[in-house]
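I am writing to request your help with a piece of structural work I have in hand. What I wish to show you is a protein chain and, alongside it, a tokenised description of its three-dimensional fold. Could you please explain, in whatever detail you think fit, how the structure tokens follow from the sequence? You will find the record immediately after this paragraph.
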Amino acid sequence: MKMMYRVLGLLLLTFTLQSCSSTKLVTRWADPDWNGGHLHKVLVIGLFKDDLMRRHFEDEFVTELIAKGRQAEASYVLMPDLQKYKDEKQLKAVVEKTGADAVLITSLKDIENRKTYVPPRVEYAPSPTMWGAYGYYGYYMQTMTPVYTPGYTRSNKVVQLETRVFAVKNKKMIWAGITESFNPSSSGEVIRELAATVVSDMKKSGFIQ
């Protein structure tokens, strides 16, 4: 009976870890020659077809940047319909109006289902005892019970987003990264983790004080 409970516990732990969402940078680049100092204000643009998602994304990034002591502005305030701002001159006019010295642009790169095989494993579960070290060692060696966990195929939903940051003064890209979010429960969860991950790396890279 104890062995059965232990097996169930291991399986529940496995499924719990599998269902937890996490976002990480899988690829990132920062301009090694950047000498423009810390960014002061960032214009945030989310290239998403869903307007609600775009607004949520931009607001989340603005909040994260402000929390780090930077100024930031969501593009939807000045460009409610991105389809009407396809010309470079139009975007330039908006950037100048905001006074931003950097533009952050994020787009959806891919959504895929990845299947990975987790091989079976054997663990040993000794029975608990209150004996001393020598007694415990002998008892353990004689009574430890193998617990077999069968192999299984794990399916993960992976959302890839690409973020690029451009300096306004020279129009060059100064930071770029691709993030992967595993098994997200909602788009809001992905956006929150994305903003925290990207802004944190920008800070480490020296673009944010």
In short: Residues 23-116+152-204 form a domain with the Double Stranded RNA Binding Domain fold (CATH 3.30.160.670). Residues 117 and 153 are 4 Å apart (CA to CA). Strands lie at 22-30, 41-47, 71-74, 102-118, 121-125, 145-149, 152-167, 173-182. Confidence is low (pLDDT under 50) at residues 1-20.
